[in-house]
Design goal:
alpha+beta; Molybdopterin biosynthesis moea protein, domain 2; Hypothetical protein af1432; 12 helices; about 15% strand; binds fe (ii) ion; HD/PDEase_dom; HD domain-containing protein; HD_GYP_dom
């Protein structure tokens, strides 16, 4: 029998439907089960979840695989950051003046988690996508930016500016009408010009409603769509006028956007995104940032299902930081009843006649429901 493993993910509370049967258990931050998998979500159960005063709940998903993806930063920290990000943005949307103390504390915790993680940047899509406002996008961009910042040996102070700016980089989107923000089709010229205002709006909101008015974090929100050849927006700044921390966030933003699913398209495979970044390095994107980032990206994630050059299927079991295209894999075989099992581990760095020819199922693309 294939071993069962537990994976934790965050599910937006508003996605839980009354009377549906839960496909996973919901747990609290200490790991205690609040609602068991298989239970029906009655109104009173839902009510008790709403009373926790959280927008995301932690779900425990059972997976029939003997390998699980490693966390980039702890899920609980992501949950807390998302909660703080959501309440901050809601307050800002209502025109309130807000303190960014909570987000600053979250950013410090994220920095600590990133510093403790010795590994590669693995695809950072462990969160279910949230469609109201791209909270998860912002959090992912912040985590990716902090990893890049760490690899570039930035100081703690610079990482704090970077993380906070990246968390708030798309805040100006609060001003974009929902019909335009969620339009599944291509935007027309007029709609596009509305979208392109969001960096300016972000700067204005941060200036008027927060204490972040003189910080470089504000520049990140203003400059994250600029390109070093001057072809970006809103100001068309070149490399000299664009802050280095903004240039890091630009790369993280593009990587996150292209690898994630959107209503109108599936996320691109990491290999293609890496090629895109490399193609623009030194031309539209900062060369040092792209090169540093790419050196630390793995094209695979633990748990990915791949096809080998001899036709067999296997699951990635351990990444190789030196030879990222040659991870360790476990070959998939069938038992007497035809059920899939995982057999011996093969180190593709040692058996060089064997290569991965195809990625059949990326762990980062697996969702509970879509
Ligand atoms: Fe943006």
């Amino acid at each position: 029998m294939a071993k069962k493993r537990i994976r934790k993910i965050l599910v937006p509370l508003k996605d839980l439907e009354e009377n549906s049967v839960l496909p996973y258990s919901i747990i609290d931050q200490k790991g205690r089960v609040l609602v068991k998998a298989g239970s029906r979500l009655t109104r009173s159960v839902l009510q008790s979840l709403y009373e926790l005063n959280r927008s995301f709940v932690i779900a425990e998903v059972m997976e029939e695989e003997s390998v699980v993806a490693k966390e980039d930063v702890p899920l609980q920290l992501k949950q807390e950051t998302l909660e703080d990000l959501q309440s901050t943005l809601e307050d800002l949307a209502q025109g309130k003046t807000v303190s960014l103390d909570a987000l600053e504390k979250d950013t410090k915790n994220l920095i600590q988690a990133v510093e403790l993680n010795p590994g590669l940047v693995v695809p950072i899509i462990q969160l279910k996508k949230y469609d109201d406002f791209a909270f998860t996008h912002s959090l992912n961009v912040a985590v990716i930016s902090l990893f890049i910042g760490k690899f570039l040996n930035l100081s703690r102070q610079e990482l704090l500016i970077l993380g906070l700016g990246a968390l708030l980089h798309d805040l100006g989107k609060l001003k974009i009408p929902v019909e335009i923000l969620h339009k599944p089709k291509k935007l027309d010229e007029k709609e596009l010009s509305v979208v392109k205002r969001h960096p300016i709006d972000a700067k204005k909101i941060l200036e008027e409603q927060t204490s972040l008015n003189s910080s470089k974090s504000q520049l990140i929100a203003l400059q994250h769509h600029e390109k070093i050849d001057g072809s970006g927006y809103p100001l068309g700044l070149g490399s000299k006028e664009t802050d280095f921390l903004s240039q890091i966030t630009t790369v993280a933003d593009i990587y996150e956007a292209l690898t994630s699913d959107r209503p109108y398209r599936k996320g691109l495979p990491i290999g293609e995104v890496v090629e895109y970044l490399m193609g623009n390095a030194g031309y539209k994107l900062n060369m040092e940032v792209v090169e540093t980032f790419i050196r630390h990206i793995s094209p695979y994630q633990v748990g990915d299902l791949v096809k080998l050059s001899d036709g067999r299927e296997a699951i990635v079991s351990e990444l190789n930081p030196v030879l990222p295209f040659r991870p360790k894999v476990r070959i998939k075989v069938e038992d007497e009843q035809g059920k899939p099992q995982l057999a011996e581990e093969v180190d593709l760095a040692r058996i060089t006649t064997l290569t991965i020819t195809e990625e059949l199922l990326s762990k980062s693309k697996i969702r509970l429901k879509d």
